[in-house]
Design brief:
The structure is a single chain. The chain has helices spanning about 5-25, 30-50, 50-75, 95-105, 120-125, 150-160, 175-185; strands spanning about 80-85, 110-115, 130-135, 145-150, 165-170. By secondary structure, the chain is an alpha/beta fold. Helix 6 (about 150-160) links the parallel strand 4 and strand 5 (about 165-170). The protein is elongated. The model is unreliable at about 175-185 (pLDDT under 50).
Length: about 190
């Protein structure tokens, strides 16, 4: 029979291991599961140590509430909003498939936002309503232009998007560019 101190020490040893796994995890959904395990281990340590009130607080607030808030944050922040002109999705199908393949490897979701006219599309990019624009206007058949306003996403796409028909551009959207876009379309 083992002593209770040895069992407690073993459980306490799991805390830094679980914390390290949380910190070094790349997939945000795996991090979510590991954070739940970390909270459960902490609650178990508090229970075994004779602090059931602290254990209950850790289980309810530290684990359940933290995981719920983290899940909401992860779900809402890992979206790439891509603006396209209405009715052009079929023309851009191949480019969109390539784009989906790249962004899924980085745990992002692609949300396509259709716009009725080019001016509204460019204005949405300038107003930071969308992250990128995909257009086939003025391009040869089956080719597309992808304009991205977020440097990190541009870097990812530049390194991993292997479509020779896709021209990739990065644009810095600042407050100064909004009036320029509006003047351009007047």
């Amino acid at each position: 029979m083992t002593s209770p101190n040895l069992e407690i020490n073993f459980i306490v040893l799991l805390l830094p291991i679980a914390a390290a796994l949380v910190v070094f995890q790349v997939n945000p959904y795996h991090t979510l599961v590991l954070r739940g395990m970390l909270g459960a281990i902490a609650a178990l340590v508090y229970t075994v140590s004779g602090a059931p009130d602290v254990a209950l607080t850790e289980a309810l607030v530290g684990t359940l509430l933290a995981i719920t808030l983290y899940a909401v944050a992860v779900r809402s922040s890992l979206v790439l909003r891509l603006g396209i002109l209405e009715g052009k999705e079929s023309e851009l199908q191949r480019v969109l498939a390539d784009l989906r393949a790249v962004i899924e490897r980085h745990y992002l979701r692609l949300e396509i936002v259709p716009y009725a006219e080019k001016q509204a599309l460019e204005s949405a990019l300038a107003e930071k309503e969308i992250h990128a624009i995909c257009s086939s206007e003025g391009m040869p058949e089956k080719a597309a232009r992808l304009t991205v306003r977020i440097r990190r996403i541009y870097d990812i796409l530049e390194a991993e998007l292997r479509s020779p028909e896709t021209i990739l551009n990065h644009v810095e959207v600042t407050d100064a560019i909004v009036p320029q876009l509006e003047k351009k379309h007047l």
